[in-house]
Write a structure and sequence with these properties.
The complex is a heterodimer. Chain A contains 15 helices and 11 strands. Chain A is α/β, with parallel strands linked by helices. Chain A folds into 3 domains: about 25 residues, no CATH class; about 180 residues, Periplasmic binding protein-like II (D-Maltodextrin-Binding Protein, domain 2, 3-Layer(aba) Sandwich), CATH 3.40.190.10; about 180 residues, Periplasmic binding protein-like II (D-Maltodextrin-Binding Protein, domain 2), CATH 3.40.190.10. The radius of gyration of chain A is 26 Å and the shape is globular. The N terminus of chain B is likely disordered. Classes of the chains: A alpha/beta, B mainly alpha. Chains A and B meet through strand 2, helix 4, helix 5, helix 10 and helix 15 of A and helix 16, helix 20, helix 26 and helix 27 of B.
Amino acid sequence: MHSIKSLQHNTRRNFYCVAFCVLISLLYVLIMNSAVAADVHDNEQSVQWKNIETHGVKQPVYFHAWGGDAQINAYIQWVAQQVKAKYQINLQHVKLSDTSEAVSRVLAEKSANNHSQGNVDLVWINGANFSTMAQHSLLLKGWADQLPNFKFTDPDNNPAVTLDFGVPTLGMESPWGQASMTFYYDRMATLTPPQNLNELVTWTQQNPGRFSYPKPPDFLGLSFLKYALVVLHQESLIASNGLQSKDQHVHSYQDALYAPATPENITEVLQPLWIFLDELHPNLWRKGKHFMQTGLEMRRLVDDTELSLAFTFSGPEIPAAVKRFDLPQSIRSYAMADGSLSNTHFVGIPYNASHAESAQLVANFLLSPEAQAYKQQAEVWGDKTVLIASRLTAPQKNLFKTQTSHPSALSFNSITRTLSEPHPSWVEDITLGWQQRYGVAP
Amino acid sequence: MTNIQNKNSIDKAVIPKSKGKNNSQSGSQLNHSTDWFTRMVKFSPKFLLLLLIVPVFGGLIGVLLPAFGWAPALSQYDFGFQGFNALWQTSGFGQMIGLSIATGLVSTLLAFVVTLMILAAFFNSVWLDRIQQILSPILVIPHAAAAIAVGFLIAPSGMISRLFSPWLSGWELAPNGIFPHDPYGISIILGLTLKELPFLLLMALGALAQPELGKKLRSQHKVALNLGYCPMTAFFKVILPSLYPLLRLPLLAVLAYASSSVEMPLILGPNTPPTLAVAIMQWFNDVDLNLRIKASAGALLQLALTGGLLALWLLGEKLVKCLFCESLTNGRREYGGAYWQTITGVVTVSVIVFIGLALLGLVFWSIAGFWRFPTALPDSFTLLHWQSAAMQVGEPLFNTLFIGIITTLIAISLTLLCLESEQIKGKLLSRFTSLIIYIPLLVPSIAFLFGLVWIQQLLAVQVSFISYINVIIAHLLFVLPYVFLSLASSYRQLDSRFAIVAASLGTKPCKVFLKVKLPQLFAPILIAAALGLAISFGQYLPTLLAGGGRITTITTEAITLANGASRRTSAVYALMQMLLPLIGFILAWVLPKFIYKTAHR
């Protein structure tokens, strides 16, 4: 700009010359800009991050996370020790029995005009809770993709870390781990657990009262319904266009289940699910008239021998429970042959968090190869990492080495097929439809 | 522990007596009206009122506005009935209400009837004291822990079923049963009845232990026996009419609690649909924030429902009075007393066996290794569950004790000051004040706590320990009434001559209070403190809501774990929940034997 001004001064009379010079300087700026764009961007990012690092240290972070699992709680304790050593951050795990408690808390603060002194600094979310918070603008935007460790997730080739149940995260939450649905059974009660959804129906007829699922909107209960819906939806599509190749089916079922539900297609898409449940329910635990409140209760009922077959979204908790005597030694884990429902879980920062910078430091640490590798160890938590191996250096990859597994653990590579989560808008319709049909015992 | 109840009975019986001494004190009032202590004492009842009225009524308003559609948080400013419309349209709404009414009413009635039967059958016998000794520890067990224990016992794989399997039943796997979580609410009724029975029994015994009333009733009972009345008939015709007025308030508190509590129905109740109170809590915590309007409307309905039940109870009281008034004087001596005596014996024994088995099961689970159904004893024992709990219990334990102790200290000081103000002013607290003290026990907590949280957030005081202050205020609402109940009669019965002598020797009022009155009250104060601690330890909803989930106590942990994966961890926390208040009562019982020994004759 200085050069332009001085040029202007010198050649005031020659308008064309001025115009030319302006054009040249503009071009120069443009070219230079695009040439150094990446560099500048990186520099900016690191400067920003330096800022966050200087402001974020020596503060408390209130991490609101579901606290129903001793292993996960212990892992968060480990994280707390690490960030204490690294940044003098005092990480407090606020144990929730349901993540929606944190959502309501932030909302209540917003309503009370508390826009900067929020109680929640970091929250563990995904799916419906995320879409609610995003919808009500309760989350800080555009920070997650700026985290230095985010590059390890290979976001360009790995949409799982920027899509939460099909909804773009827009940098509002940072990926933490991946989970897949795992089934487990009691070998002393049955030797032939069902391998797919159809076998499940016949198995429950042979073993009445030995299987059930938690009552929606419980996370695990909904997961079971979504697993059934995705499988049934595929089947119904294959049945209706029998001759088309499989790839095309995958494409067409994605259209309905992986886009927002519309009033027109709800009845049609969900119909197979209700038919399936009508057939399944009479042979469930308590004849399908009462459902357990949580997924954890389901695990206890397996220990009580009331149930012989159950499922979980964190496979490693099963061998861990056997080690703690919470499940019998006769438990074995396996994955359904027709697919395992899989999803990514994230951490988000509320828009009014009191210690947003510190929370970003914690989120970045959660993404570090060291924290992700420790988390993936079966005896720690066993949660699958979100990092992509090709982005890691050799010593970082070494951190992820595996150990021999427990007899009750899911054997390596037993998940042959994964099913993606449907769009979150379906959750509400499934819950509502379920509530209307089965929510009140006849 | 029995002492608590001895002091429990409310003012009525004492009123005529206290008039005499009040006159003598009004003289000293003039001399010290400018004394700072006297001024503080005189102000204390007003402060007490403020402390109770503001949160309760403020909380009610905080629920009232959203119920009618005014919720700035949700950008809703239109007054209307949308919340109520949503409420009526909830599927299973009728069942919800029915369940709340049935469990509340039936459990209270059952606990009351069994209490009367036990009192009638064992009145004036040594067995009454023994039953009391066995049952009184139940009083200090928090509801959540009791529910967990009952759940362990009646589950299809529970202790009862294990005792009969497989030799009798042939069950190799746990059978398909309906308990707990049965759709009829039987498990809830069972849990509530077992928990409220000791409370009512001890309240009744406390009333009967009042020197004058007790003596009068016992001699009247003897007269009736001499006239040939069967002991049970004599109890119902002679004692009950005088005893009932003293039991009315505890009964109403039990009824209000039973119809609106969340702990028991959450752990033992059905969920298709749950009780109204549990549903309200779930709506408040739901992801869909618009459900909060419905939840607020539900909270108002809960208020009406509990109010209706209380009114129904009072109406029933009148009806019973009308129907049976004549039979009191009809002279009939015998109503099959022998049968009733046997039935009462059987009921009492089964209640005690039931509780014993439940506690035994809890202890076993807390140290069990693998324990597959149907063996009645664990395969192996381990301390693993206690060890892992010990690793994590530090903060919850600190919070529990810190909040409990601070709350109890405030409650006791305030109660003592209020009672002192009675003596300085020379008249009992106004009826209005006495009523307000018990308001938190009669208004369903779920109805005002959510509003209270909203107000606390609105004030948004930025102090780092604000959540502790909020929780302590919320706990005070429930601790104060019990501490007041526990201390009032012993304070009012205090021999005023000591204070008069001290004052006439020129001692200042504050010195009289601290050096003369309090040492004499050392034992009752400790009992009240133990009671206050026990109540504070057991609070779930107030801790959860006012603390914003940041403050974990043993109770919140126990309930989070109750429906969780591990019976073993759950048992450990339930036992810890029981042990804490028990330690308090043991201290309260032991300490007076060593300190201020001379104050006791």
